[in-house]
Each structure stands twice: as C-alpha cells, then as structure tokens.
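Could you join me in thinking about how sequence relates to backbone shape in a protein? To get us started, please write out a protein record for me. Would you write everything just below, so we can both look at the same thing?
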Amino acid sequence: MPTVESEIIIERPAAEVYALAQDIERFPEFMADVQSVEILEDDLPRRVSRWIGVIKEFNRTIEWTEEDYWDDDAHLCTFAQLEGDFSEYRGRWEFSEVPEGTRVHIEVEYEYNIPLIGALIKNLLRKKMQQNIDAMLAALKQKAEQG
C-alpha cells in the first residue's frame, strides 16, 4: 500500500498546535483541498467525522468518513477510514516538542482503486497525496504562527 509522509516545525508550543489540529471543522477555512468536515460523533478521545476533499487535477471531489483517536498525553492522533472513496486510508499525526517549537509529523497509508487505473495515474495520485499532506502542514503552520 502506498505511504506518504511529511513533517514541519511550527514555532508554537506542542499543546497549542495539537489543539489547533483537533479543531478539524475549521480546516476548510485555511486548507484549500478540504471542502468540508462534519463531526458525526465526538466522544473524545474518539471522534468520527465526514470529509469532502477536492482533487482539482481530476476535477472531482473525494469523500470519506474517518475515525480518529486523540491521545492527549502523547500528542498523537491515529485515524482510519470507516467508509468512503478510498479502498484503504489510515495514518497518524505526531506532535513533538523541539527547541524551535513543535515538530508535526504525518504519515498516511492509502489505496485508491479505480478500475483499469494505469501506472501514470497511480504516480500522479501519489504525487497529489504528497502535495496534499505537505500543504496541510504548511497551512497548519501558517494558522498556528499567526496566532
């Protein structure tokens, strides 16, 4: 299964960055590839949410419902798709204190099966998934550092 990962340093305390990342309903405000997020169940540490993302290159949206587990002590979130357009979708966010602020690391494993999909399209999808998580972290950094 393909995996993409990214990390960034955000010049804010880990607890603050972690809290911002938990506020997923606000993601569409500052993340261009996220059209909407709706929380369906919120019984922290477990949360279930419905996502609609935008894939501009394919001129389509992608939808899924995911289950998140937020570990406040470890500043960690693990997530997995319950249903949706991906064949498989799961990963984790890690928020670690570093001298400069917070290191945020995200790893996503995914499978997106389209009948007769070719290697070129799979490579484009991998590139898009990588761009998406890089952009997500950049947007989180910008939002956190703006205050």
Remarks:
- The chain has three helices and seven strands.
- Residues 119-146 form the longest helix (28 residues).
- The chain has one domain: 3-146.
